[in-house]
Amino acid sequence: MSTVAQFFALPPSQRDHIPAARIALSVAIPLLVLLALDRTDLAIYAAFGAFTSIYARNEPIRDRFKHQSQAALILLVCILLGALLSNMGAAQLVTLGVTAVVAGVGALVAAYLNLKPAGSLFFIFAVGAIGSLPEAAPPWLAGLIAALSAGLSVALGLAGQWVGEGVQGPIAPVPAHHGLATGQLWSHAGRFFLATSVAGALGLLSGMSHSYWAMLAAAAPIAAPDLSARLQRGVHRMVGTLGGVGVTAFLLSMQLETWHIVVFVIILQFLAELFIGRNYSIALLFITPLALLMTQLAHPVETLSLLQARAVETVIGAVCGLAVVYFFRSRSEREADTRAVPLIRQAANGEEPRG
Fold first, then answer.
1. Burial (0-12, 13-18, 19+ Cβ within 10 Å), 35
2. Is pLDDT of 61 > 80?
3. Fewer CB atoms inside 10 A, N or C side of the chain?
4. CA dihedral defined by 271, 265, 245, 6, rounded to 10 degrees?
């Protein structure tokens, strides 16, 4: 299959609606409770806690419980750290620096624990988004809401076995950056730190708001298992996000009330999970408005500047991530990529791989 064909490929669904419904429910319950209490200003902490549900999606129940519990703890630490930075009134440069450290350390810990999704994307998002809020909730309150939401996600993850959710078909191979030697783990973490540091700095220099979005885009391609997948992930990130900005512009062109935004967030979470394992760029058509609407719930800003920032920061970050994954490869990775080139060419020409 050619590179262009792979970009638009949409593999058959593997009963994705079941985990998608579970994950959407993990987000829906805490958000609807906060909506009923008229405290949607706290929705961002519940949503980040609910990201626990995304982990260990296709794993057996016992492994899912272990890995979701580990992810919940890491997310909780990130949420508390972000709330602390905001409450201290930390300068943007400080917040971005701390977020870059979290990107590297989080990637290392995630690889060591074999967490899936791989990488530190959600940890970066939690620290960067909450730390950038002008007035975040007190850390104890942010932590309490996030912990309750994460606990619900773990419970629903256990309940998934009752509706037939489990590993469907052959188990996917473990990405190459899991089970690495200590030196390789640190190199992996270093890529996350370097890419997010440069992206955050360039995002800050761009004068746009939400510089942590550049850091998210920089981290996205690094989590993929090999160079080809990383390059494709980076391009998907840019194209899908730009399309998602258009979807967001359409949604925000309507006069949305708070309850409308909450409903859209729940629906968008479900749609994102339907496509995230099948085509990353399509999933980003829903992930992008999901992230932006969450941001608007926590701290509403002018729509045009929000959309411009998301587009510009994503391109900046994705380019930084692509540069890092291409130029900062180990010798073994370069050799593996070199060996893969003839196989890719054969596949593109419809030939059977040999050797």
1. middle
2. yes
3. C
4. -20
